[in-house]
Amino acid sequence: MKAVILAAGEGKRLRPFTMSRPKGMIAVGNRPILEYIVEALVQNGVKKIIMVVGYRRDAIMLHFQDGKKFGASIEYVVQEKPLGTAHALALAGPKLDGEDFLIVAGDNLIDAQLITDLLAKKNGLSMVVAESESPSKYGVVKMEGDRIVDLVEKPEIQIGNIINTGIYYFPHKMLELFKMPTFHKELGITQMLSGMVSEVEIRAVKSSGRWNDAVYPWDLLNVNAQALDFSGQDVKGTVEPGALLKGPVNVGSGTRIRSGCYIEGPVTIGEGCDIGPNVVIMPSTSIGNGVLIEPFSYISHCLIMGNAIIGSHSHLSRSVIGDGVRAKAGLFAPSDSCIVRAERELFQVSDVGAHIGQDTIIGSRVVISPGTVVGAGCRIEDGVRVSGNLENKSVVV
């Protein structure tokens, strides 16, 4: 059996963290989201994979190449224009060789159990469904038994909390329906299927497996926390005497944990990092490769991407820090409940910190209010308090 992974989208609502990579290549638990998807398929014996790529496709193709490193055989189809998942599936069709196949969204965190459940419970055209606290972001399904009787994409009023995860078992004959349209505008698989529910039986599959999606920047924290699903310690770097690692902590090769540090897992720290001395890192934190965290800093439930520098005496809580961010001493980014603006909408978000885009430079003694989204390439001078949203390359003095 083959699987089609739909990984052509940008993830605009996750800006600024998708400025230089597609959503599926954002690292959570220090691995790209797409890696978890490929691993889940391979563990179920689904090793022939077609990836539909588009936005920043080189990042995906250079990472996965032919798939052998990941136990898979990967082919690529390029979607040149963002015409939606229905168009992406139509492009992949010629490579499917008349077999039934799986479709997996390329930007959701999943595990092997979810694919196992889909393969075990499939009954013709089947769709994995899940409960959601924010169903309006997705396609909402109505069911009678396990049959889907209605499917509404991103409803404006709440009609239920069972959503389409974008993961399907497809009989090959269904591909004929996706060859018919001429794609002039963006069209999703959900929109195509919604007009067919009275004619085509679509079965819902509920899974005990893991499924999580990051729609907005603050969602990355929960996805990252769920990705930190490991036990025990794996220390390949150097831990100096006087440093304490408690619980599941991974430390990459070439990383130095200096004396006086306290790290409580689950925490993963990449390669070539320099932490401390006297740094506290609390659970559900991922730190990418080449990160420097200077003395007397406190980090809790954060996602810190590669090559960032966090100056001494900094405090970061439930924050996402992009690649190459440079923060001088005394950065204060606490978490709290707040109202956040994204795509002209306001969201009430509980317990969230700062979101700082790549290559931003931050001076000393800067305070960033909870829920603030700082664009890529910004410059924030010493002693400034920042709140709200900053566009890319903004300067705050």
Would you give an account of this structure?
This protein is α/β, with parallel strands linked by helices and 397 residues long. The chain folds into two domains: 2-215, Spore Coat Polysaccharide Biosynthesis Protein SpsA, Chain A; 234-396, Hexapeptide repeat proteins (UDP N-Acetylglucosamine Acyltransferase, domain 1, 3 Solenoid). Helices cover 14% and strands 35% of the residues. It has seven helices and 41 strands. The strands form nine sheets. A nine-stranded parallel beta sheet has the order 14-17-20-23-26-29-34-37-40. Strands 15-18-21-24-27-30-35-38-41 form a nine-stranded parallel beta sheet, with no helix packed on it. Helix 1 (33-43) packs across helix 4 (112-121). The longest helix has 11 residues, at 33-43.
Structural class: alpha/beta
Strands, count: 41
- The CATH topology assignment of the largest domain is Spore Coat Polysaccharide Biosynthesis Protein SpsA, Chain A
Number of spatially distinct domains: 2
Q: CATH superfamily of the largest domain, please?
A: Spore Coat Polysaccharide Biosynthesis Protein SpsA, Chain A
Radius of gyration: 22 Å
Characterize the biggest β-sheet.
9 strands, parallel
| Widest sheet: strand ordering | 14-17-20-23-26-29-34-37-40
Q: Percent of residues in helical segments?
A: 10-25%
**Unreliable sequence segments:** none
The CATH architecture of the largest domain can be named as Alpha-Beta Complex
